[in-house]
């Protein structure tokens, strides 16, 4: 799921996302640490790409895979296990997440597919 360029953040929201104050964002903007974008009316805003870059995530070279993991205690809970897997698959589909692998099991037996 590529969420870059979907949302622009107001300074207040972006500061909350990073866990810093708006004053810190303003200082970083002045210092060039994290430059704010400007609207036509000169209001500051930040993008999701800036968030990823700040966190050190390069989405172009991201080789991570999405894996779901479901487990129950005993073989008698097989229906519960199937419900967990179905829920996780549905969640991924609803969010547009491409699922690479499913790990499921009971007790200490695990199946990977």
How are the SSEs ordered, and which strands pair?
Elements: E1 8-9, H1 11-18, H2 22-31, E2 37-38, E3 44-47, H3 48-54, E4 67-72, H4 78-95, E5 101-106, E6 109-112
Parallel strand pairs: 4-5
Antiparallel strand pairs: 1-3, 2-3, 5-6
How would you describe what is shown here?
With 113 residues, the chain is α+β, with helices and mostly antiparallel strands. The protein folds into two domains: 8-61, Multidrug-efflux Transporter Regulator, Chain: A, Domain 2 (Orthogonal Bundle); 67-112, no CATH class. Helices cover 38% and strands 21% of the residues. The protein has helices at 11-18, 22-31, 48-54, 78-95; strands at residues 8-9, 37-38, 44-47, 67-72, 101-106, 109-112. It starts with 7 loop residues before the first strand and ends with a strand. The relative contact order is 0.14.
**If you compute it from the alpha carbons, what radius of gyration comes out, rounded to the nearest whole angstrom?**
21 Å
N-end to C-end Cα span? 21 Å
Low-confidence stretches: 1-5
Helix fraction by DSSP (H/I, runs of at least 4) = 25-40%
Q: Trace the largest sheet across and list its strands.
A: 1-3-2
Q: In total, how many beta strands? A: 6
Order of helices and strands: EHHEEHEHEE
CATH class of the largest domain: Mainly Alpha
Biggest sheet character: 3 strands, antiparallel
Total discrete domains: 2
Shape: elongated
Strand content: 15-25%
Q: Structural class of the secondary elements?
A: alpha+beta
């Amino acid at each position: 799921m590529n969420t870059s360029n979907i949302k622009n953040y107001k300074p207040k929201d972006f500061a909350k996302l990073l866990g810093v104050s708006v004053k810190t964002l303003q200082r970083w903007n002045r210092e060039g640490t994290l430059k704010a974008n400007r609207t036509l009316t000169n209001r500051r805003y930040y993008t999701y790409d800036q968030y990823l870059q700040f966190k050190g995530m390069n989405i172009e070279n991201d080789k991570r895979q999405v894996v779901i993991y479901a487990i129950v205690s005993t073989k008698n809970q097989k229906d519960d296990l199937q419900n967990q897997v179905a829920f996780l698959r549905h969640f991924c589909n609803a969010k547009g997440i491409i699922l690479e692998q499913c790990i499921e099991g009971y007790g200490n037996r695990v199946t990977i597919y």
